[in-house]
Amino acid sequence: MMSRGAGTAFSRKNYRLSTEPEKSKVTGIVNSRLLNDYLHRVFTNADGNQPAAAYRKHLTFQNLQEHLDQLLAEENGSEDSRDQVAEGRLGPSAVVLDHTSGFEGLLLVDDDLLGVIGHSNFGSIRATTCVYKGKWIYEVLISSQGLMQIGWCTLNCRFNQEEGVGDTPDSYAYDGNRVRKWNVTTTNYGKSWAAGDIVSCLIDLDEGTIAFCLNGVSLGTAFDNITRGAGMAYFPAISLSFKESVAFNFGSRPLRYPLVEGYRPLQDPPMSDLVKARKLLGYLKNVIHTGIDVPEGKLVEKDTSMWQLQGEPTVLITLAHIFNYLSPLMCKVYLVEDVLMTFLLSILERGGAVEAHPLIQQLLDLMWLLMEEYEVHECLKQLLMSLLRAYRFSPIIPDLGLQIHYLRLTIAVLKHEKSRKYLLSNVLFDVLRSVVFFYIKSPLRVEEAGLQELIPTTWWPNRFTKEGKESKEVKDESAEERLRRRAYERGCQRLKKRIEVVEGLQVQILKLLLNNKDRGGGEASRYIFLNKFRKFLQENASNRGNLTVLCPPEYMVCFLHRLITALRFFWDGHKAKTPAAMSSEEAYVPPQLFYNGKVDYFDLQRLGGLLSHLKKTLKGKCSHFQYLHPDDLAAKANVLIDPAELQAVTMDDLDEDEESATSAAQSQRPSAALAIGGALARPGWLSSPTLGRANRFLSTAAVSLMNPRRPLGTLDKIKVRTLSVEQRTEEDIEGSHGNEGLLVGRPPEEPDQPITENSLLEVLDGIVMMYNLSVHQQLGKMVGVSDDVNEYAMALKDTEEKISRCPKRRRDIHEELLKSQKVFSEKLNHLSRRLAWINVTIYSKEKMQDVYWLLRVCIRTIEHGDRTGSLFAFMPEFYLSVAMNSYSALKNYFSPVNSMEELPGYEETLMRLAAILAKHFADSRIVGTDIRDSLMQALASYVCYPHSLRAVERIPEEQRICMMKNLLAPYEQRPWAQTNWILVRLWRVSILHPCPSLRLGQPEDASLPSLQKPCPSTLLQRHMADLLRSDRDLAPSFLNSVLNQLNWAFSEFIGMIQEATVSIASQIQQAAERLERNFVDSRQLKVCATCFDLSVSLLRVLEMTVTLAPEIFLDWNRPSSELLLRRLAQLLNQVLNRVTAERNLFDRVVNLRLPGLESVDHYPILVAVTGILVRLLVDTDVQGAERATVVLLADPCFQLRSIQYLLGHAEPSALAPAAPATDKRHFSLHTYTEYISMEELAKVDKMLSHLSEESKQAAATTLPTSEEDLCPICYAHPISAVFRPCSHKSCK
């Protein structure tokens, strides 16, 4: 490699000067005396002392290499002895995992053979080296905190998918997941571990003991008197369950916690190289500290912080000699971590900003100047890997000093432009995954993290409501509670300030990676970052079904927030320079990115389906996209898509198209690629802290494969016009000379206004995708800590109440309650401190504002995309998903710490999101069933809360009417349960109110809230009534579909409870004989309860329809009114007869109170039926009441007894004696006066009197009918029709 700069050119391996005496004058070398003094000052002896001038050798550049050889060889004799094979150890000197024969089960092993991830039930693997004498240690870096057993085993141990290390004789293990030790039997031992911890495994074969340490803290002796003697040698070994991962350090890198006296790592450190590297680094320090004052002819001490090379030939050639020996050593991971990283960290220990230490930049310049390129590359790679391991596995201390230290050095290295571009191109995403640098791990053990000192006073809310709000107001706090809360909040603020320092450093790293001004020597960093970032997203998006390949979601959360901060910094910076551009508060992704092919969305679903589906649907209409020149695309971008065509192509057609395309692609693929294409792709960065690029897949069939990442080429078949990630340049992204780059193909609906730099738009698009991939799920997961605090707080309060009520004479009970109180208090103290950490790192106000900003970005993006008409189908589904999920997170996850209502523009945002949900839940351009269901569920959630329901009412009237019309569409051929639920929530329940203790038709969906108080919308009810009255086709089709679904749901419910009661009766009889209890399958009971809930909700919708537009049933001038009324009466009578019959199936199920059938009760279903009957028979005009009465009484299933049952007027059975009054409590609406008013009960009484009188009159006027006169088909109506010529008789 040829050096450049300072007007001198020379090769590192060819740097010696000519022996001509005048050469020094030409090159600017100082005189021989000063040079001799300088070289002796730099290259001191091993003891650091310099011999007297009279006795020391005269040094020049001609004999310097010989002198260096002597200095470096001084202690080689003593060091060489250490490199010999140590006694007590058998096996290769380089210790790795035995991937050829020493494993059981399915395992993925990293390329360096040190990291492993489980890929089966319980896989086991051992190392290649064993020990039989002495004291030995190795470390395990815990990447996941799941089920693993780590320790030692002998060669004779045989493991399987159920038994691993510690489950057989002569194998010993520690399990930090269950906090136990294992050797055939198991007992409690140690502490629980967490991801980011380091376990040290120690074996003393002289004393026969095994011990373990966690993060350098001894857990005590785990086993003693282990088997020793002839043939007994112990291998490091591990057994781990599916997707758990660790990395081993047998000594190939410096042990993180080597402070265990007398114990040696299994792999000896390279001592001779280590001594050489330390000496050479000492010489380098001497060069930095020593200056040459040529005019004075003397050496001077220099300030190292301000040292610069400044092109001095003497210094440069001296450094070249040092690097001649140092460069090969800096390619070894042990030396980089132990020597180089330690030296660089010491430079930053003086404090101050990273910019105040330019020495690191100067040293990196020297490395690029004096080392071969491959040496610099390897050194930088190992340095960053060492920094990442150190950051990830550093223990958490109160000031986060260790994490800050490593991040500062990372920033210092990345500030060097050439190093940054190399690392970004080849290391940060390809090997390391820089995402790890943006993670702040949560402490599992708050004591070790020092949170007790940082937050000495703990506090927790007394109780939460179902909505997550505190039920106890601050004004009701006692003085002691108020003091505790304020002290706790002060502690949280102290913690927040320290974490903000780390977050600030992480943002600095991203700002360096997003720099687009460093174009010297190639492409700017931002465009390298964009391409790597897109590949990172592709890996996580394309492998969502395989958990082992995903970036951990907790990393994604932190990365997302740091990236948003950095993005907005550059976005607003561009706005300051370009006033016409938009600010980050107005940010959105323009719709042309979704269809112009400039951004790769892989195989993600679009709103109109997969891209291949859209191509097939559009047929010739969008084929010009494939070949259109970018300059012509803008003028021809308005491609029309027929929504009817979108619906006509089924997903089956799409599957066939995909299969044919896949088979065609595979037929062209070389056979060698096919051999490995099906292998499980898994980047090693997640599974192992060693962060290897490749990995090995191990199985008991002795298969070892190198698994490539998912090839990009297989996705090319679904691209319209997409450049591969590696092919894109800055011009392709930003555009130039009339080329709009990413924004080519602007639709006419899109305003001609600059937004921001195109590269920032792609980063924004990636952020939205990241949130959809795993961030939202992780936000929901971390809420569990808050739920635990709530549960323990309620348990503690309950225990304290019991203590206060406990009689003094019952000391035994009192003592047990005190013990429980202590346990709950200690757990709450721990959880409240951990919750403080989580609230600061995940649920802080700043994080909430990030998610809110992302919500608004998605809303604006959807609004702009919607204006493009049919091109809206090209938008990826995840934009709608993120809009819905981010709102859900703001409402449910960040409260009560922060309130969404305090966010700026909250009301407007709520209304705009409501408009999106109302418009698009039935949008024909959206074809995916999953996203349509999600939109429906989000709308259902919206109408459950008064505040969000008011937002729905504020959307434009045209959109409201269109939403209600879509809700009233026939239920057939579409998911109707959610639609029905929405209509139920909009109903004001005016006839009879449901009992809040009973579930009312709630869909079985975890995303919907539990039953809320009714929040009716008279505005939307009015729209519904107008639609049903005005559209004569809409009302019959809607009501017939509701009646059909009610018939199905109630019939299914009755059939299921019949099966359930028969099964229960037989099992009770068997249980009586065997004294066992075994009831019906809970899943069957859950389905049964769901059918009941659906029946009730359908009845409620019928009640709403009858109340809002009774003329649909009672105005017989309408063509289908009489038929609808007869169908309604028939179904109501069937429901009443089934539910009100004495000692029937329904009664038995209600009385059994089976788990899973708690919602099945008389009240909800009878109230709904009664509400319909009251509206038809009482709250209507005389003519309507007469028609309804006639139809109801004419139905053969009508029984007056069922109506009497509603008010408790049950008739005694003629077949059995009446039960005592205390034995059976009859149902009666009179017992629910808390929910039913006296006025409503009076209406029910009036209805009963009316039906009783009318049924008597009907019975008196009806002549008896013989069986011969009845219809031979239904036997319910008299014969009224004769069919000729067959002469069959029927009632119709």
Automatic annotation (TrEMBL):
UniProt catalytic activity: S-ubiquitinyl-[E2 ubiquitin-conjugating enzyme]-L-cysteine + [acceptor protein]-L-lysine = [E2 ubiquitin-conjugating enzyme]-L-cysteine + N(6)-ubiquitinyl-[acceptor protein]-L-lysine
Basic and acidic residues: bias regions: 728-737
A GO CC term assigned to this protein in UniProt: cytoplasm
CDD domains: SPRY_RNF123
Span of domain B30.2/SPRY: 75-255
Family matches, as Pfam families: SPRY (PF00622), TPR_RNF123 (PF25576)
Transmembrane regions listed in the UniProt entry: none
Positions of region (Disordered): 728-753
Superkingdom classification of source: Eukaryota
Any single biological process term in GO: proteolysis involved in protein catabolic process
Gene Ontology molecular function: any one: ubiquitin protein ligase activity
EC number(s) stated in the UniProt entry for this protein: 2.3.2.27
Keyword set, alphabetical order: Metal-binding, Transferase, Ubl conjugation pathway, Zinc, Zinc-finger
Gene3D superfamilies xref list: 2.60.120.920
Protein name: RING-type E3 ubiquitin transferase
Organism for this UniProt entry: Opisthocomus hoazin
